[in-house]
Task: structure prediction
Amino acid sequence: MDKKDCGYQLTILDTFGHFPMGLDKIGEKLKFPKFSLEGVGGKTEAYWKKHMRELLKLYPAVFEKYSLTDAEIAIEAWNSLKAEYEPREVACMHATASSITNAER
Result:
C-alpha cells in the first residue's frame, strides 16, 4: 500500500524495547507463529539466517513468506501495544534508544 493511501506510515525499527524477546516468542504469545526455514534446501534455519541473500536468490517465494511473516508479527505486536495504550489515552508511543540510533542512519 502506498503511504499516500492512508496518510500514515508505520516504521518498526525495534520491538525489543517493548517486547524483550525475539520475534519467534512474540509470535507465539500473539498466536501468530513465525515461519520456519528449517529444512529448506536441506539446510538449518540457523544457516539461512546467516545467508539471507542466498535464500532470496534460490528460494524467492520462501524468502518472501519468511519476511512477510516477520513483518506481520511486528505489526500485530504494535497493534497489541496500541490496543493496550489507547484506552489509557496515551497519545503517542515513544521511541527506544536503539530505534532512534537506527533512524539516524
Remarks:
- The mean pLDDT is 80.
- The helical segments are 23-29, 45-50, 52-58, 60-85, 97-103.
